[in-house]
Amino acid sequence: MHPNFEKSFYITTPIYYVNDVPHIGHAYTTIAADILNRHKRLEGYQVFFLTGTDEHGQKVEKAAQERGIDPKTHCDEMVVRFESLWKRLNISNNDFIRTTESRHKKVVQKILQDLYDRGEIYQANYDGWYCIPCERFWTEKDLLEGNCPDCLRSVTEISEKNYFFRMSQYQSWLIEYIEKNDRFILPPSRRNEILGFLRSPLEDLCISRPKKRLKWGIEIPFDTEYVTYVWFDALINYVTGIGYGSEENPFSQFWPQVTHLIGKDILTTHTVYWPTMLKAIGLTPPKMVFAHGWWTIEGKKMSKSLQNVVEPNRLIDAYGVDAVRYFLMREVSFGMDGDFSHTAMVHRINSDLANDLGNLFSRALSMVVKYFDGLIPPPSDLQEVDRGLQEVSEKVLLQVSKQMDDLAFNRALGSIWEIVGAGNKYIDETAPWALAKAEKDRPRLGTVLYQTLESLRIIALLLAAFMPSTCEKMWAQLGMGENLWEQKLNVNGKWGGLKPGRKVAKPMPLFPRLDPTKISRGA
Ligand code: MSP
């Protein structure tokens, strides 16, 4: 690899179907990807972060038909909902790809033509069953009591000529690849699931749909009677998005240093279809595909009406962007299923954010304002208790880096809260308000407040990826004039970066406490 590319990192989210408006599941993956992006940048990586929309296929065509408008107009309207939500959620993606863009269509057609010319794609008769919501074919033996084995909805019988990708020939290669690369599919339970799936013979993949049944898709370049199967089209977005196939592109820098974040329901498409497609195209599979769990809402599976209760814009209105980002990452281990409840949300805000973090911050700042006119005092004559706080911060800095590599967001937050806890304990133990009473204790008072503020500076750096605007505020209030996003954790994360003599701002509450008796039901 080119030496400049060693610290390159490419993050993608699934591209979301535009048959409906964005919901909490979409927000969840996108927030996780944003956090990883921001954190890796603070670690000094060059990161490319891609998200976008999946606009072809039967689901989208049907949604447009139901609204009585053409599919492209429908997509143009829906895509705005996604883009504006990402803006509100402070998502820092480098690019946004829509599968209806010509840059994408061109790449899909080029890949199809190339695979066809090399005999990787052939035509044959297809007799079987089709699930429209999943956009997937099933054989008779796949069905569960006559229904789709994935979503349990009814399926339609079809018999037609179609084009097939010779996926089956890559089965043993894929098994070997997964076995040799134990971080390719994570968490490990998902890796086992796919290895289990691959114990049965892998079939070839039907990659076309006759236009008489579906018009809304990318035309197959070698047979204009057909459009491309939406998944074959959609998976290619990840290479289109970084310029595969064109001269000037970031492709050579970022491929295959890629981490795909997905939900557990789209594991097979990303760890069986996608790597075999890449193998046929002649590209190395991605570094990692991480499948997260699903959210239930107040203990129930997400339905249309529950989707409204946790509509992301409403959550932001009620709780604020950073609290929503924090809750989703803190409440559940990434990879596991979790439950969203307003009670849990309010509890997290009041206890973790307002109480633990907010109080530590405002107590420390107001004492600097009160006792030192807001000028950061210098530390001197460190005692064991002072070094203890520093040691916790140094340990956490290393821990968080490892936890973020494992996408263990909730553990990383747990670690950051170890500093918060240590900071609160430190203030209680050193009792700066008592030191303020005697002039002779002023140097000691200065040391205690410096140490506390310094721990808060480290907290702001480590937490910035999770709660960007809160940490920007903390950073500025701590008198740090430097741009937060230009900091490097291995340099600026070192203890002692806070500058004595600089002025802190009067503290503004970071998180107002919420009244638990007035918990929103989103109605
Ligand atoms: N368009 C495809 C992906 C193509 S990627 C080449 C798709 N789109 S989707 O809009 O239906 O779903 C996108 C993501 O939302 C999936 O990763 C899915 O797991 C996630 N979620 C949908 N409901 C969810 C929850 N209730 N909880 C968490 N995530 C969920 O699939």
Description:
- The protein is an alpha/beta fold.
- It has two domains: 5-292, Rossmann fold (3-Layer(aba) Sandwich); 342-492, Isoleucyl-tRNA Synthetase, Domain 1, CATH 1.10.730.
- Helix content is 48%, strand content 14%.
- The protein is built from 20 helices and 14 strands.
- α10 (267-281) links the parallel β11 and β12 (288-292).
- α2 packs across α3 (71-88) and α12 (312-319) crosses α13.
- The model has no long low-confidence stretch (mean pLDDT 95).
- The chain binds 5'-O-[(L-methionyl)-sulphamoyl]adenosine.
- 5'-O-[(L-methionyl)-sulphamoyl]adenosine is lined by residues 14-17, 25-26, 28-29, 54, 234-235, 237, 262-263, 265-266, 294-295, 302.
- The site of 5'-O-[(L-methionyl)-sulphamoyl]adenosine has 19 residues, from β1, α1, α7 and β11.
Please report the number of helical segments. 20
As a percent range, the share of helical residues equals 40-55%
Structural class call reads alpha/beta
Quickly give the CATH architecture of the largest domain: 3-Layer(aba) Sandwich
Number of strands: 14
- The number of domains is 2
Cofactors, ions, other ligands: 5'-O-[(L-methionyl)-sulphamoyl]adenosine
The end-to-end span amounts to 54 Å
